[in-house]
Structure formats: structure tokens, C-alpha cells
Amino acid sequence: MGTAKNLSPQYGSSLPLTVGGCVNSASATTPYMAFPGSVADVHIYPRALSATEVGALR
């Protein structure tokens, strides 16, 4: 378990969302797997959460 921050994402917002990797071009047929592990629980929110909201998720 851990956290990471990527200040310069390598994806286009017009391309599909891929958790644990990225499709970095419209012609790509498989995602570039940037995360060498597994993802068990994913939540997507329509806005940035406050520190209090993030703390309540634990």
C-alpha cells in the first residue's frame, strides 16, 4: 500500500481512462502498464476531495 503523485501525467484527457497504466496515443492497442502491481479498489470522483473527505475514506 502506498501513495504516489505524478505531476506530469503522460496521457491525453481525450483518451480512455486506464487504471494502473495509460493509453498514451490514439493508435495504441494496449495500455502502457505504468504500475507494476494490482489495483483492488478504485473510486473516481467528479471533483477534488478535501483533506477531511479523504481522511474519512480510510
Helix/strand class:
little secondary structure
Low-confidence spans: none
- Which band does the percent of strand residues land in? under 5%
Sequence of secondary-structure elements? H
Report the major sheet. Answer: none
Kindly state the number of beta strands. Answer: 0
| Share in helix | 10-25%
Shape: globular
How far apart the termini lie comes to 12 Å
Would you tell me the overall average pLDDT? 74
Rg, Cα atoms, Å: 13 Å
Number of helices: 1
Plain-language structure description:
By secondary structure, the chain is largely without helices or strands. Helices cover 10% and strands 0% of the residues.
Task: Describe the protein's topology.
Elements: H1 51-56
Any descriptors?
single chain; about 60 residues; little secondary structure
Briefly, what is this?
This protein has 58 residues and is mostly loops.
